[in-house]
């Protein structure tokens, strides 16, 4: 069996978060969704679990607490896009779903086009496309 990744994120408002992740075209996994959490399938082996703050906190130890909103960042979730247009569509879909632009689209390196959005709870999702030529000649 292939390994899978589950990105677990706290949310202050599960319904608002569900609208956002649905707008990105992710598929809701009803088997692992209930009143405390929603499971979203990004790809076959990549899922995001959005958990109400209180439920998320039940998995934490040592006095740790869920973090949402703006301020410090512990991680940037990054996904690939098949095309430059896919990057722009992801950003547009995120905005339509209640998200916000975190970093506008740009081309920091020749052949790499990227942007980043925030979900309604402030979690950052990067999206990037790399040209086949850039993938063959990294750093060139």
UniProtKB/TrEMBL annotation:
Coiled coil: none annotated. Residues 3-130 form the VOC domain. It comes from the Bacteria. This is Glyoxalase. It comes from Glutamicibacter uratoxydans (Arthrobacter uratoxydans).
